[in-house]
TrEMBL record:
Domain called Plant heme peroxidase family profile: residue spans: 69-345
Entry protein name: Peroxidase
Signal peptide feature range: 1-21
Gene Ontology biological process terms from the UniProt entry: cellular response to oxidative stress; hydrogen peroxide catabolic process; lignin catabolic process; response to reactive oxygen species
Binding site for Ca(2+) 2: T204, D221, T223, D228
Amino acids binding Ca(2+) 1: D75, G93, D95, S97
Transition state stabilizer (site feature) positions: R70
InterPro entries reported in the protein's UniProt record: Ccp1-like, Haem_peroxidase, Haem_peroxidase_sf, Ligninase, Ligninase_C, Peroxidases_AS, Peroxidases_heam-ligand_BS
Organism this protein belongs to: Pycnoporus cinnabarinus (Cinnabar-red polypore)
Residue pairs linked by disulfide bridges in the UniProt entry: C29-C42, C41-C312, C61-C147, C276-C341
Sequence segments annotated as region (Disordered): 343-365
Length: 365
């Protein structure tokens, strides 16, 4: 009896191993170089290599990466079930409408400046067999993989292209109130306040071109080439200056020369609904990566049934490891923090040595 039971157990284990092997078996791609778990993903390797070399300057975390990531959001957030409930078209989410209907959507105030990256991406879309909807999200995920400290983002294909433009005012503006921003994200995809904060981790590698047009390419933190927690630290420092001209809509004072601060970021960092979540990213690179990865995954499929898409995340390169430690900029101390989280003290951080920090602007593309 014992021998029969052992033989039965061995048989079951062998069957499980065979089933697992079948599930994970990879197929050889036609290029003779790569393999994939789904043959539909094979075409993405050539797209990835093309944009890495020719759009992202050989794999840099530069301006085109920043703008490609911005485009993923501006396309995907263009969906509103509340508008649709009134019998009007509420947008298709991540459907490529921002590029397909460029002449309409890039004239929306919130989308000023995205026409440049749309025009840069167009030749790549034309020479590869991807929908515009898929390409925009794919390019954003590949670009982020060039940034030290970034998570390896998820990629899906199979989105159909838009047939109508998204409605205006579905993209939040930097001068919107916290109430308005949280309501817009909730309407678009049921995003929680914590998920909104996580999505704003994108600002760690971002820059502003049109908030103050006299200083295009001005970053939101002192390390715009690194996907790190400095953005969440520096937004909580007391603002003392404008890096360019004052009085711009959607801008408040920054703590550093060469760094711009959006009104929306400042208010979200200090609002009781989001302040503690904001502070929780300080000096927590692991949470930064995991929370942004999850929020990006949710955003990138807005308007689609994820079960109808094909996941091709394996095509995304592993990003370089983190290349910085959380710190206060030179010349500033813990006393410059405007403590907003009522329940948790602000973490103790080292201060960079040397003269007061001055951030060099990101060169415009």
């Amino acid at each position: 009896m014992a021998l029969k039971a052992l033989a039965s157990l061995v048989s079951i284990l062998a069957a499980l191993q065979a089933a697992n092997g079948a599930l994970t078996r990879r197929v050889a791609c036609p290029d003779g170089v790569n393999t994939a778990t789904n043959a539909a993903c094979c075409a993405l390797f050539a797209v990835r290599d093309d944009i890495q070399q020719n759009l992202f300057d050989g794999g840099e975390c530069g301006e085109e990466v920043h703008e490609s990531l911005r485009l993923t959001f501006h396309d995907a957030i263009g969906i509103s079930p509340s508008i649709a409930s009134r019998g009007q078209f509420g947008g298709g989410g991540a459907d490529g409408s921002i590029a397909i209907f460029e002449d309409i959507e890039t004239n929306f105030h919130a989308n000023l400046g995205v026409d440049e990256i749309i025009d840069e991406q167009r030749p790549f879309i034309q020479r590869h067999n991807l929908t515009t909807a898929d390409f925009i999200q794919f390019a954003g995920a590949i670009g982020v993989s060039n940034c030290p400290g970034a998570p390896q983002l998820d990629v899906f294909i199979g989105r159909p292209d838009a047939t109508q433009p998204a409605p205006d005012k579905t993209v939040p503006e930097p001068f919107d109130t916290v109430d308005s921003i949280l309501a817009r994200f909730s309407d678009a995809g049921g995003f929680t306040a914590a998920e909104v904060v996580a999505l704003l981790a994108s600002h760690t590698i971002a820059a502003a071109d049109h908030v103050d047009p006299t200083i295009p390419g001005t970053p939101f933190d002192s390390t715009p080439e690194l996907f790190d927690t400095q953005f969440f630290i520096e937004t909580q420092l007391r603002g003392t200056l404008f890096p360019g001209t004052g009085g711009n809509q959607g801008e408040v004072e920054s703590p550093l020369k060469g760094e711009i601060r959006l009104q929306s970021d400042s208010e979200l960092a200090r609002d009781s609904r989001t302040a503690c979540e904001w502070q929780s990213f300080v000096n927590n690179q692991a949470k930064l990566q995991s929370a942004f990865k999850a929020a990006f995954r949710k955003m990138t499929v807005l308007g689609h049934d994820v079960n109808s898409l094909i996941e091709c995340s394996e095509v995304v390169p592993t990003p370089p490891p983190p290349a910085s430690n959380a710190h206060l900029p030179a010349g500033l101390t813990h006393n410059d923090i405007e403590q907003a989280c009522a329940t948790t003290p602000f973490p103790t951080l080292p201060t960079d040595p040397g003269p007061a920090t001055s951030v060099a602007p990101v060169p415009p593309s």
